């Protein structure tokens, strides 16, 4: 179980980006975080995970997040990552092992087998010796998901993982995330494509600086909640949106 209590953060100490967001997820699920541009979706995740300055608390099974950091994996937006860093695909995935390693502890043969298994799951085993700069956007996103697999985190946070990737990569990632869920994971995805919400997510968090609604998708993915978040100009018919 992970609980967020009054998570707030500002851009510059003055302009509020997200305010008093409180909710709990107590079972394995894929949770979509949706809202308009500027709603504070990414800021909420970063503040909740203490990656930026903010207020409020995040607890895991009643314990402060600081005591359970190894159980949390975060994948930032691809646009925030340096593709030119000289590292191979296999080495990039191996970075997910380090939260469990002591300082200067080496990666074992068993560890490398786990890395190769992760690459196989995302269908990238043939690319393991390539530089990450040689990958397409979709291929690189699959590598980032493989890195969360080797970390074996219980709580996974993905910030806009499907932006600018091909349909094949998106389907591979979703299939893997659904498998993660069956293994007891809670997966949070910042997402913008409303047409896929009902297909992808068990639960939703709808934000526009404050929490508009949270709960099972079939209960909260309503025209009323979407209009409250996106404004009255949004057009909603059967989960489609002109946003």
TrEMBL record:
Pfam family, one: ABC_tran
Tagged with keyword Transferase: no
Source superkingdom: Bacteria
UniProt xrefs under InterPro entries: AAA+_ATPase, ABC_transporter-like_ATP-bd, ABC_transporter-like_CS, Metal_Ion_Import_ABC, P-loop_NTPase
UniProt entry tagged with the keyword Chloroplast: no
Annotated CDD domains: ABC_Metallic_Cations
Gene Ontology molecular function: ATP binding; ATP hydrolysis activity
Keyword entries, A-Z: ATP-binding, Nucleotide-binding, Transport
Domain ABC transporter: start-end pairs: 2-234
Family according to the record: Belongs to the ABC transporter superfamily.
Protein name in the entry: Putative manganese ABC transporter ATP-binding protein
Origin species: Tetragenococcus halophilus subsp. halophilus
